[in-house]
Structures are given as structure tokens and as C-alpha cells.
Specification:
With 339 residues, this protein is an alpha/beta fold. The chain is built from eleven helices and twelve strands. The longest helix is centred in the first third of the chain and has 21 residues, at 2-22. The N and C termini lie far apart (58 Å). 45% of the residues are buried. The structure holds alpha-D-fucopyranose. Residues 48, 50, 98, 123-124, 142, 181, 211, 239, 265-266, 288 line the site of alpha-D-fucopyranose (FCA).
């Protein structure tokens, strides 16, 4: 009985594979005239407003150009690979992806190749089996080091504006070194602070176990116990969530918002914070260009499939500082209408 079942199952798979071939699932690079183009966009943390924005802007591109966009959540490696299988079976031609694990790069590429999917890695760059960046995979991400430096320079200026004595001030640097773009950002912030004259030994690293608010809150709780003498805190991290977690931890330990100044990165995940009636220790954020990460990547992919226009291999975007005073105006200027 079991043997029979297995046989039927194998025949079914063979049949399916055959259908795929006929429907052009394998590697036909250019779509036939009138054929609907499907592009999948997998993001690692769908709960983060940043990734919702990327999807939203990609959706705008899909409406404008008339392709089908599949907005997908790939929160772990297994999910990502099975989503790629689904895209392959559906006959999709392109994959935009911010992977939950950069080391999955080689597996993503070989799976995508099997289905003839073109790939653009978004935000987080793939790492190959040799531990190096997969430089032959198209990538659009942020200029992490430079944006981090902007954060560090702004924090230093704020410390001076507030008249804090350097000797009573510490930097809570919320790190996530597992991810290169995150390390670039916090390294950049530290470099700029040191270049401005901030003492290196007062920059304290608080490693996050997970790259979310909870991970940062827990990391900061530990740091605050270790450094009871610090009166004023400057805070930097890989993104808004990293800084928000630290601010929450400091509030819980009784620090007044006047003694805390944090600057995040993304600018999309802190709107509620900036809208609060009373200022918190979250001073501002480097607003990234979500439109480029969503609309532009989707458009690049569409053109690549439709017209054979290959996108640049490596594109980096920058950020602009938003604070309680200017965030509405800048968000409007940057195309974030209605968020
Ligand atoms: C990484 C972070 C996101 C965002 C993006 C540009 O993927 O996890 O929050 O900062 O880079």
C-alpha cells in the first residue's frame, strides 16, 4: 500500500515538473509578448515599518508598470527557500529580497537559478561560502558607514548644545555585528564621535541578541547596570528599533529625557515616537530613502526582465536627519504622504 502511495506521489511530482517546463517555469529569460510578469519581494521583518514601506513603494511600481508583485515575509531560512519554490512554480521572473540570514546567499542564488529568477539583494548583502560578499549579485543597500558617521557627528553636536560635560557622558552603542551593514553603521557613528573629540573609552558597546526593540532593551539593561556613573547618555544603533529599545530601557531606569539623546536610522520606525506630545530621549533619525529601496528596485527588476536592462551591481543610498521639529515636512518632501 505504502509503495503504491509513494509511486503515485513520484508520478505526480514528475508530472508537475513537466508542466513547469511547458509553462516556461525553467529558465526562459525574457517573457513572451503579453505575458504577465511576476516579481516576488521577500522581506525579513515584515513587522518593521521600514519593510512595509519598501513593499508599499514596490507596489506603486507594480501598478505603474503593470506587473504582478508578490509581497512576501521570509522570516527564516526555511521559509525563504520554500517561498522561492512557490515563486518558481508560479512562473515568477524576478526576486527582490532582504534575507533573514545573509549567509543564505549561495542557497538563494542556486534556488533562484533553478527557476530562472533574476535576483536583487536589498538592504542586506549576501555573504558567500568563502565568507566574502557575493559581489556578483546585484545589490541595493545603504551607505552604512557614512550614514553612521552622520549620526555620530549629530550626537556630538547635540551633546555640546545641551552643555553636557563630556566626563559625565557615555555613548550607548547598540551593536549587531552579525550583520555587516549594521556594523558599518555603528562603527561609523563611533568613528565620527572620536574624530569630533569624544573619548573612545566612554563609548560602550551593548550587543543585541536580536535586531529588534526587545533585543536592544535587554542589551541596554545590562549596560546600565555595568555603568552606574554615567549621567548623560548618547545613543546610536543600527536602526530606529535599536535606539528605541535603549531609550525604553533608560526611561525604565529613571533617566530623564533631558539626559538622553538618541539618533536612529530608517526614519520610518519612529514616527509614533516623534509624534508624542512630550519629547522623549529619542531625538531624531536618519531618514533613509525607502522609495529607492522599494520603487526603484522593483522598477530596475521589471526593466531587467522586460527590456534586458541590467541594473548596476552595487547601489548605495543616503539619509537625512529628521527630528521632532522637521519630520512632517521632510517626510512629505520624500514621498511618504499619508503615513
Ligand atoms: C537592515 C535593517 C533595516 C533597515 C535596512 C536598510 O535590513 O534591518 O531596519 O535599516 O537595513
Amino acid at each position: 500500500m505504502n509503495l503504491l502511495k509513494n509511486l503515485v506521489f513520484v508520478m505526480f511530482i514528475v508530472l508537475l515538473a513537466g508542466c513547469g517546463e511547458e509553462a516556461g517555469v525553467s529558465s526562459s529569460p525574457t517573457p513572451k509578448e503579453g505575458e504577465k510578469i511576476t516579481i516576488g519581494f521577500i522581506v525579513k521583518q515584515p513587522e518593521e515599518p521600514w519593510f512595509q514601506m519598501e513593499h508599499r513603494f514596490a507596489r506603486e511600481a507594480s501598478k505603474e508598470h503593470g506587473f504582478e508583485l508578490m509581497e512576501l515575509a521570509g522570516t527564516d531560512s526555511e521559509k525563504v527557500l520554500s517561498l522561492i519554490d512557490n515563486l518558481g512554480v508560479k512562473g515568477a521572473k524576478g526576486l527582490l529580497i532582504c534575507t533573514p540570514d545573509v549567509k543564505l546567499g549561495p542557497a538563494i542564488m542556486s534556488r533562484a537559478e533553478k527557476y530562472g529568477l533574476k535576483v536583487i539583494a536589498v538592504d542586506d548583502r549576501f555573504i558567500g561560502n568563502d565568507g566574502k560578499f557575493m559581489e556578483n549579485v546585484h545589490y541595493l543597500g545603504i551607505a552604512g558607514k557614512e550614514i553612521g558617521k552622520d549620526v555620530g557627528a549629530e550626537l556630538y553636536k547635540e551633546m555640546q548644545k545641551r552643555g553636557w560635560d563630556v566626563k559625565d557622558t557615555g555613548v550607548a552603542m547598540i551593536t549587531f555585528h552579525e550583520l555587516d551593514t549594521a556594523k558599518d553603521r555603528t562603527d561609523g557613528a563611533a568613528e565620527a564621535l572620536i574624530a569630533a573629540g569624544f573619548p573612545k573609552e566612554q563609548i560602550y558597546l551593548a550587543p543585541q541578541k536580536t535586531s529588534d526593540i526587545k533585543g536592544s532593551l535587554e542589551a541596554t539593561d545590562i549596560l546600565l547596570v555595568q555603568k552606574p556613573g554615567v549621567k548623560h547618555w548618547l545613543v546610536a544603533g543600527m536602526n530606529d528599533s535599536a535606539v528605541l529599545g535603549a531609550i525604553r530601557s533608560m526611561e525604565a531606569r529613571g533617566f530623564s529625557p533631558k539626559d538622553v539623546c538618541g539618533i536612529g536610522i530608517n526614519g520610518t520606525d519612529c514616527i509614533g515616537e516623534l509624534e508624542k506630545r512630550e519629547a522623549t530621549g529619542f531625538y531624531g533619525s536618519m531618514l533613509l530613502q525607502a522609495k529607492k529601496h522599494g520603487y526603484d528596485t522593483a522598477t530596475m527588476m521589471y526593466r531587467w526582465i522586460k527590456e534586458g536592462v541590467e541594473p548596476p551591481l552595487d547601489t548605495r543610498t543616503r539619509g537625512i536627519l529628521i527630528t521632532r521639529d522637521n519630520f512632517r515636512e521632510i517626510l512629505r518632501e520624500q514621498g511618504f504622504e499619508g503615513i
